[in-house]
Amino acid sequence: MIKLVASDLDGTLFYPKRKINMVTKKNADFFRDFYKAGGSIVLVTGRSRRIPMKVEKKIKVPISILGCNGAFVYEDGVFKSSYPIERETLMRIYIQLRANFGIIGWLILDETDQIKVAATNTGNWVPMIGAFSNLFNLSYSEKFVFSEQAVFDAIAKGTVYKIMPIFGIDKRAKEKAAAASVALCDLYKDKLTVVKAGISLEITSFGVTKANTLKQFVKMKGIGEDEVAVVGDSYNDVPLFEAFKNSFVMASGEKDIQSKAAHIVHRVSDLRSFVLDEDKRLLP
Protein backbone atom coordinates (compact mmCIF):
# COMPACT_ATOMS: atom_id res chain seq x y z
CA MET A 1 0.00 0.00 0.00
CA ILE A 2 1.27 3.46 -0.91
CA LYS A 3 0.82 5.75 2.09
CA LEU A 4 2.92 8.71 0.94
CA VAL A 5 3.47 10.42 -2.42
CA ALA A 6 6.56 12.60 -2.77
CA SER A 7 6.49 14.86 -5.81
CA ASP A 8 8.91 17.28 -7.40
CA LEU A 9 7.43 20.63 -8.52
CA ASP A 10 8.90 22.19 -11.68
CA GLY A 11 8.47 19.90 -14.65
CA THR A 12 6.49 17.46 -12.50
CA LEU A 13 3.53 18.68 -10.43
CA PHE A 14 3.74 21.91 -12.46
CA TYR A 15 3.46 20.04 -15.76
CA PRO A 16 1.75 21.17 -17.86
CA LYS A 17 2.13 24.72 -16.61
CA ARG A 18 -0.83 26.72 -15.37
CA LYS A 19 0.48 30.23 -14.71
CA ILE A 20 -2.80 31.31 -13.11
CA ASN A 21 -3.94 28.18 -11.24
CA MET A 22 -0.43 26.75 -10.62
CA VAL A 23 -1.58 23.12 -10.65
CA THR A 24 -3.82 21.37 -13.17
CA LYS A 25 -7.24 20.32 -11.94
CA LYS A 26 -6.42 16.62 -12.42
CA ASN A 27 -3.24 16.86 -10.33
CA ALA A 28 -4.99 18.86 -7.60
CA ASP A 29 -7.97 16.45 -7.51
CA PHE A 30 -5.60 13.47 -7.26
CA PHE A 31 -3.78 14.95 -4.28
CA ARG A 32 -7.07 15.80 -2.55
CA ASP A 33 -8.46 12.30 -3.10
CA PHE A 34 -5.22 10.68 -1.95
CA TYR A 35 -5.20 12.76 1.23
CA LYS A 36 -8.88 12.03 1.95
CA ALA A 37 -8.12 8.31 1.57
CA GLY A 38 -5.52 8.59 4.32
CA GLY A 39 -2.38 9.29 2.31
CA SER A 40 0.31 11.87 3.00
CA ILE A 41 1.78 14.34 0.50
CA VAL A 42 5.32 15.68 0.43
CA LEU A 43 6.73 18.20 -2.03
CA VAL A 44 10.40 17.42 -2.60
CA THR A 45 11.78 20.36 -4.52
CA GLY A 46 14.82 22.43 -5.34
CA ARG A 47 12.83 25.54 -4.47
CA SER A 48 12.60 27.23 -1.11
CA ARG A 49 9.37 27.18 0.92
CA ARG A 50 7.41 30.05 -0.68
CA ILE A 51 6.02 28.32 -3.78
CA PRO A 52 5.29 24.97 -2.05
CA MET A 53 3.33 26.91 0.58
CA LYS A 54 1.27 28.46 -2.22
CA VAL A 55 0.59 24.96 -3.55
CA GLU A 56 -0.69 23.91 -0.12
CA LYS A 57 -3.12 26.84 -0.06
CA LYS A 58 -4.23 26.11 -3.60
CA ILE A 59 -4.91 22.40 -3.07
CA LYS A 60 -6.26 22.94 0.46
CA VAL A 61 -4.77 19.85 2.09
CA PRO A 62 -1.79 19.63 4.48
CA ILE A 63 1.52 19.25 2.67
CA SER A 64 5.03 18.71 4.02
CA ILE A 65 7.92 20.47 2.26
CA LEU A 66 11.41 19.09 1.71
CA GLY A 67 13.02 22.14 0.14
CA CYS A 68 16.31 23.09 -1.52
CA ASN A 69 16.89 19.48 -2.63
CA GLY A 70 16.36 18.21 0.90
CA ALA A 71 18.29 20.88 2.81
CA PHE A 72 15.32 21.47 5.12
CA VAL A 73 11.98 20.02 6.20
CA TYR A 74 9.17 22.55 6.65
CA GLU A 75 5.89 21.39 8.16
CA ASP A 76 3.05 22.98 10.15
CA GLY A 77 4.59 26.42 9.68
CA VAL A 78 8.01 25.62 11.17
CA PHE A 79 11.38 24.23 10.10
CA LYS A 80 11.40 20.71 11.56
CA SER A 81 14.99 20.03 10.46
CA SER A 82 17.61 21.83 8.42
CA TYR A 83 21.03 21.20 6.92
CA PRO A 84 22.56 24.55 5.95
CA ILE A 85 25.92 25.01 4.27
CA GLU A 86 28.76 25.76 6.68
CA ARG A 87 29.45 29.51 6.63
CA GLU A 88 33.24 29.26 6.26
CA THR A 89 32.83 26.93 3.29
CA LEU A 90 30.29 29.32 1.76
CA MET A 91 32.69 32.21 1.91
CA ARG A 92 35.53 30.21 0.39
CA ILE A 93 33.59 28.86 -2.59
CA TYR A 94 32.00 32.25 -3.26
CA ILE A 95 35.44 33.85 -3.49
CA GLN A 96 37.03 31.00 -5.46
CA LEU A 97 34.27 30.58 -8.03
CA ARG A 98 33.86 34.32 -8.51
CA ALA A 99 37.56 34.69 -9.23
CA ASN A 100 38.23 31.61 -11.35
CA PHE A 101 35.16 30.62 -13.36
CA GLY A 102 33.69 33.86 -14.67
CA ILE A 103 30.38 33.52 -12.81
CA ILE A 104 27.80 35.94 -14.21
CA GLY A 105 25.36 35.60 -11.34
CA TRP A 106 24.46 33.95 -8.03
CA LEU A 107 21.22 32.75 -6.48
CA ILE A 108 21.13 32.31 -2.71
CA LEU A 109 18.28 30.37 -1.08
CA ASP A 110 18.12 30.78 2.68
CA GLU A 111 15.63 30.57 5.56
CA THR A 112 13.61 33.51 4.26
CA ASP A 113 11.10 33.41 1.41
CA GLN A 114 13.28 35.75 -0.67
CA ILE A 115 15.91 34.58 -3.15
CA LYS A 116 18.99 36.80 -3.16
CA VAL A 117 20.45 37.42 -6.62
CA ALA A 118 23.74 39.07 -7.57
CA ALA A 119 25.19 39.81 -10.99
CA THR A 120 28.98 39.53 -11.17
CA ASN A 121 31.39 40.25 -14.03
CA THR A 122 28.48 41.76 -16.00
CA GLY A 123 26.48 44.93 -16.21
CA ASN A 124 23.01 45.53 -14.78
CA TRP A 125 21.29 43.66 -17.60
CA VAL A 126 21.26 40.32 -15.71
CA PRO A 127 18.99 41.55 -12.88
CA MET A 128 16.81 43.33 -15.45
CA ILE A 129 16.34 40.13 -17.47
CA GLY A 130 15.68 38.18 -14.28
CA ALA A 131 13.06 40.63 -13.02
CA PHE A 132 11.34 40.75 -16.42
CA SER A 133 11.27 36.96 -16.72
CA ASN A 134 9.95 36.53 -13.18
CA LEU A 135 7.14 39.00 -13.87
CA PHE A 136 5.74 36.75 -16.58
CA ASN A 137 5.91 33.60 -14.45
CA LEU A 138 2.77 34.84 -12.68
CA SER A 139 1.78 32.27 -10.01
CA TYR A 140 5.24 30.67 -10.17
CA SER A 141 7.00 33.98 -9.48
CA GLU A 142 9.49 34.11 -6.65
CA LYS A 143 10.43 37.07 -4.47
CA PHE A 144 13.85 38.17 -5.69
CA VAL A 145 16.22 40.65 -4.08
CA PHE A 146 18.71 41.84 -6.70
CA SER A 147 21.70 42.97 -4.67
CA GLU A 148 25.26 41.72 -4.32
CA GLN A 149 25.29 43.16 -0.82
CA ALA A 150 22.22 41.08 0.05
CA VAL A 151 23.98 37.99 -1.31
CA PHE A 152 27.10 38.71 0.70
CA ASP A 153 25.09 39.41 3.87
CA ALA A 154 23.21 36.12 3.48
CA ILE A 155 26.49 34.24 3.08
CA ALA A 156 28.16 36.04 5.97
CA LYS A 157 25.27 36.12 8.43
CA GLY A 158 22.32 34.01 7.25
CA THR A 159 21.29 30.37 7.16
CA VAL A 160 21.92 29.35 3.56
CA TYR A 161 20.47 26.10 2.27
CA LYS A 162 21.43 26.25 -1.39
CA ILE A 163 23.53 28.40 -3.69
CA MET A 164 23.42 28.43 -7.47
CA PRO A 165 26.31 30.00 -9.42
CA ILE A 166 25.36 30.79 -13.03
CA PHE A 167 28.15 30.39 -15.58
CA GLY A 168 26.67 32.21 -18.58
CA ILE A 169 23.93 31.97 -21.15
CA ASP A 170 25.82 30.47 -24.10
CA LYS A 171 26.90 26.92 -25.01
CA ARG A 172 30.19 27.27 -23.13
CA ALA A 173 28.33 27.89 -19.88
CA LYS A 174 27.49 24.17 -19.51
CA GLU A 175 31.13 23.27 -20.03
CA LYS A 176 32.19 25.80 -17.38
CA ALA A 177 29.58 24.45 -14.97
CA ALA A 178 30.79 20.88 -15.53
CA ALA A 179 34.42 21.90 -14.93
CA ALA A 180 33.51 23.79 -11.77
CA SER A 181 31.52 20.80 -10.56
CA VAL A 182 34.57 18.55 -10.84
CA ALA A 183 36.75 21.10 -9.06
CA LEU A 184 34.30 21.62 -6.21
CA CYS A 185 33.73 17.89 -5.71
CA ASP A 186 37.50 17.45 -5.46
CA LEU A 187 38.12 20.38 -3.11
CA TYR A 188 35.05 19.97 -0.90
CA LYS A 189 34.23 16.27 -1.18
CA ASP A 190 33.34 16.01 2.51
CA LYS A 191 31.60 19.39 2.82
CA LEU A 192 29.35 19.89 -0.23
CA THR A 193 26.88 18.13 -2.50
CA VAL A 194 27.10 19.48 -6.05
CA VAL A 195 24.54 18.76 -8.79
CA LYS A 196 24.86 19.99 -12.36
CA ALA A 197 21.88 21.99 -13.58
CA GLY A 198 22.65 23.07 -17.12
CA ILE A 199 24.32 26.49 -17.06
CA SER A 200 24.42 26.49 -13.26
CA LEU A 201 25.17 24.28 -10.28
CA GLU A 202 22.99 23.42 -7.30
CA ILE A 203 25.19 23.37 -4.21
CA THR A 204 24.01 22.15 -0.82
CA SER A 205 25.64 20.83 2.33
CA PHE A 206 27.42 17.47 2.20
CA GLY A 207 25.11 14.46 2.09
CA VAL A 208 22.02 16.55 1.33
CA THR A 209 19.88 14.96 -1.36
CA LYS A 210 16.16 14.64 -1.83
CA ALA A 211 16.45 10.91 -1.15
CA ASN A 212 18.45 11.13 2.07
CA THR A 213 16.10 13.66 3.64
CA LEU A 214 12.99 11.80 2.48
CA LYS A 215 14.34 8.57 3.98
CA GLN A 216 14.79 10.30 7.34
CA PHE A 217 11.35 11.89 7.03
CA VAL A 218 9.40 8.68 6.36
CA LYS A 219 11.30 6.85 9.11
CA MET A 220 10.27 9.58 11.56
CA LYS A 221 6.65 9.21 10.37
CA GLY A 222 6.71 5.43 10.77
CA ILE A 223 6.16 4.82 7.05
CA GLY A 224 8.07 2.07 5.26
CA GLU A 225 10.16 2.96 2.22
CA ASP A 226 8.14 0.47 0.16
CA GLU A 227 5.02 2.47 1.10
CA VAL A 228 6.36 5.58 -0.64
CA ALA A 229 5.89 6.63 -4.27
CA VAL A 230 8.25 9.27 -5.71
CA VAL A 231 7.85 11.23 -8.93
CA GLY A 232 10.23 13.68 -10.65
CA ASP A 233 11.74 14.72 -13.95
CA SER A 234 15.39 15.78 -13.68
CA TYR A 235 18.89 15.01 -12.41
CA ASN A 236 18.30 16.04 -8.81
CA ASP A 237 15.46 13.48 -8.70
CA VAL A 238 17.71 10.53 -9.65
CA PRO A 239 18.64 9.80 -5.99
CA LEU A 240 14.89 9.39 -5.33
CA PHE A 241 14.55 6.92 -8.20
CA GLU A 242 17.52 4.94 -6.93
CA ALA A 243 16.41 4.89 -3.29
CA PHE A 244 12.68 4.11 -3.63
CA LYS A 245 11.37 1.20 -5.68
CA ASN A 246 8.00 2.85 -6.41
CA SER A 247 9.54 5.50 -8.65
CA PHE A 248 7.95 7.45 -11.49
CA VAL A 249 9.61 9.73 -14.02
CA MET A 250 7.88 12.26 -16.26
CA ALA A 251 7.78 11.45 -19.98
CA SER A 252 8.36 15.16 -20.61
CA GLY A 253 11.51 15.24 -18.46
CA GLU A 254 15.18 14.53 -19.04
CA LYS A 255 15.35 11.66 -21.55
CA ASP A 256 18.65 10.26 -20.32
CA ILE A 257 17.35 9.68 -16.78
CA GLN A 258 14.10 7.92 -17.65
CA SER A 259 15.73 4.51 -17.34
CA LYS A 260 16.49 5.30 -13.68
CA ALA A 261 12.83 5.09 -12.62
CA ALA A 262 10.51 2.08 -12.53
CA HIS A 263 7.65 3.77 -14.40
CA ILE A 264 7.14 6.57 -16.91
CA VAL A 265 4.08 8.81 -16.53
CA HIS A 266 2.73 11.81 -18.44
CA ARG A 267 1.14 13.57 -15.46
CA VAL A 268 1.40 13.30 -11.68
CA SER A 269 -2.30 12.41 -11.73
CA ASP A 270 -1.35 9.20 -13.61
CA LEU A 271 -0.26 7.84 -10.21
CA ARG A 272 -3.95 7.57 -9.29
CA SER A 273 -4.27 4.10 -10.80
CA PHE A 274 -1.22 2.91 -8.84
CA VAL A 275 -2.38 4.12 -5.41
CA LEU A 276 -6.19 4.45 -5.40
CA ASP A 277 -8.99 2.07 -6.35
CA GLU A 278 -12.17 3.02 -8.20
CA ASP A 279 -13.80 4.02 -4.90
CA LYS A 280 -10.89 6.37 -4.10
CA ARG A 281 -9.51 4.13 -1.37
CA LEU A 282 -5.85 3.29 -0.90
CA LEU A 283 -4.94 0.19 -2.89
CA PRO A 284 -3.67 -2.68 -0.72
General form: globular
The CATH topology annotation of the largest domain reads as Rossmann fold
Class based on secondary structure composition and strand pairing: alpha/beta
CATH class of the largest domain: Alpha Beta
Rg of Cα set: 19 Å
Unreliable stretches: none
Task: State the helical fraction.
Answer: 25-40%
| CATH H-tier superfamily of the largest domain | HAD superfamily/HAD-like
Q: Order of strands across the widest beta sheet?
A: 5-4-3-2-1-12-13-14
Beta-strand percent range? 15-25%
Distance, first to last CA: 5 Å
Largest sheet: 8 strands, mixed
CATH structural architecture of the largest domain: 3-Layer(aba) Sandwich
Give the overall pLDDT as a whole number: 91
Give me the count of strands.
14
- Quaternary: single chain
Order of helix and strand elements from N to C terminus: EHHEHEEEHEEHEHEHEEHEHEEH
Can you put this structure into words, describing what you see?
By secondary structure, the protein is α/β, with parallel strands linked by helices. It has two domains: 4-82 and 209-275, 3-Layer(aba) Sandwich (Rossmann fold); 87-205, Hypothetical Protein, Haloacid Dehalogenase-like Hydrolase, Chain: A, domain 2 (2-Layer Sandwich), CATH 3.30.1240.10. It has ten helices and 14 strands. The protein has helices at residues 9-13, 25-36, 50-59, 87-100, 125-135, 148-157, 172-187, 210-221, 238-243, 272-275; strands at residues 4-7, 40-44, 64-67, 72-75, 78-82, 105-110, 114-119, 143-146, 160-166, 192-197, 200-205, 228-232, 246-250, 263-265. The strands form two sheets. It has an eight-stranded mixed beta sheet with strand order 5-4-3-2-1-12-13-14, sandwiched between helices. Strands 8-7-6-9-11-10 form a six-stranded mixed beta sheet, sandwiched between helices. It is globular and about 60 Å long. The mean pLDDT is 91.
